[in-house]
Design goal:
Elements: H1 12-41, E1 55-59, H2 66-80, E2 85-89, H3 108-111, E3 118-121, H4 127-133, H5 137-142, E4 144-148, H6 161-166, E5 169-172, H7 175-184, E6 191-193, H8 208-218, E7 225-230, H9 237-240, H10 242-252, E8 260-265, H11 273-283, E9 289-292, H12 301-307, E10 310-313, H13 322-329, E11 334-337, H14 343-346, E12 351-354, E13 356-360, E14 375-379, H15 381-396
Parallel strand pairs: 1-2, 1-3, 3-4, 4-5, 5-6, 7-8, 7-10, 8-9, 10-11, 11-12
Antiparallel strand pairs: 13-14
Helix pairs in contact: 1-4, 8-12, 10-15
């Protein structure tokens, strides 16, 4: 999601008004003022590529969000490959929720005098611009400036142009994002596809026995076929497709019983209350579907994965899809909307693509509907339901 990350702590009605009325202006101002200064600082300096001698990586390192997870994976991957990396946590700087301190993270104040070869800002504009603005002039003049940007549509916001011009390189998690940048800015940008290094995370595992304990806490039959989806309201309710997961599950298994269940995991429902209300209305007559909040026994994502048999990613769009990567890596089949599916994920045998139709964007949270000319997907519910039934039949004969 772009811009206005600073508003996440506001009540939903106030945040919605701010996004609707002031979003485009604030994004433009937050991007252009700091970058105008940075461009002056860098005037006359030749562009150069990533060296990896000593990298400052700034991002939402203590945030439970996908952006935070991606930044942590990159720090971990650098360390495993012997790259000297200085992690800087910007979570509190931009008012995002934090789940604790990131081990070894520095503050910007502590690193301003350190020699650095590369500045890698793991944030989209305008937060990218504001993070860069906090760095000293000497570092901006000497170091390679890299933006690691993730985006979910086939076009990026036009206000990103100013930030793109400041970067020596732009790194993205998939070719889909690279193509979105190229479609919006036909400039001679240096864009490198750098997928999230999920395979380097040895902490991921699938513990079926622990999952049975969670099922008991939730009152689910230990032998039931359990589907699940997990999302953040801060990542956009309509885009993440929870209502499509409900529709596919109910179409696949229309008769209420105790042998099928669907878990809907959302830990920040207060960010967008209309989304939670919609799901409760859709599921109130179906006791097999459980809406899980931050007090549920699957608050920890690892316990959630332990509990399910199939992961549903029936989203309208993904810049990458970390949950797809995580679930499939630990042996859980994933049904994922085929549009924009990253090549390295589509190649995984446990990732099953779901048909779709491209449609115009209608976004009640107004994150994406201001990107002119962009579209997103409508997952094919019948196709998803068919795959669900096939997976269920396979599990019965396993």
């Amino acid at each position: 999601m772009f811009g206005l990350g600073l508003t996440r702590f506001l009540p939903y009605p106030m945040r919605r008004t701010l996004i609707e009325k002031l979003g485009p202006v604030l994004n433009s101002v937050q991007t252009r003022i700091p970058l105008a200064w940075i461009s002056v600082v860098r005037a006359g300096r030749e562009r150069h590529g990533f060296t990896g001698d000593r990298v400052l990586l700034a991002g939402l390192l203590s945030s439970p969000s996908g952006l935070g997870r991606g930044a942590r994976l990159m720090v971990q991957d650098f360390r495993m490959r012997g790259v000297s990396v200085v992690p800087v946590d910007m979570t509190s700087t931009f008012g995002f929720d934090s789940d604790g301190l990131f081990p070894g993270a520095e503050t910007l104040k502590a690193v301003v005098s350190q020699p650095l070869s590369d500045l890698l800002i793991h944030l989209n504009p305008p937060e990218f611009s504001l993070a860069l603005w906090r760095l000293p002039v000497a570092q901006l003049r000497r170091a390679t400036i890299i933006g690691y940007w993730a985006w979910e549509l086939d076009r990026v916001p036009k206000f990103w142009r100013a930030a793109a011009k400041v970067c020596d390189e732009i790194w993205v998690p998939s070719q889909f994002v690279a193509d979105a940048l190229a479609a919006t800015f036909p400039d001679n940008l240096t864009v490198r596809v750098v997928p999230h290094a999920v395979e380097s995370d040895s902490a991921l595992s699938h513990d079926v026995r622990r999952g049975r304990l969670v099922r008991a806490e939730l009152g689910i039959d230990p032998d039931a076929f359990v589907a699940g989806t997990s999302w953040s309201m801060g990542s956009n309710f309509e885009r993440k497709g929870a209502r499509f997961a409900v529709a596919a599950f109910q179409r696949a298994f229309p008769q209420p019983d105790t042998k099928h269940a669907l878990l809907l995991r959302c830990l920040d429902g207060e960010i967008y209350p209309p989304g939670i209300r919609m799901l409760r209305q859709m599921t109130e007559a179906d006791p097999r579907i459980v809406v899980l909040g931050d007090k549920a026994p699957v608050g920890d994502i690892a316990r959630f994965y332990d509990t399910i048999d199939v992961y549903l990613s029936l989203t309208r769009s993904e810049g990458y899809g970390l949950s797809i990567a995580e679930a499939s890596q630990i042996g859980i089949p994933v049904l994922a909307t085929a549009w924009g599916l990253a090549a390295d994920l589509a190649a995984r045998p446990l990732v099953i693509p779901v048909d779709y139709t491209l449609v115009g964007i209608v976004d009640p949270q107004h994150f994406y509907d201001r990107v002119h000319g962009a579209v997103w997907a409508e997952p094919d519910i019948a196709d998803a339901a068919r795959h669900l039934r096939e997976l269920r039949a396979t599990s019965l004969h396993a």
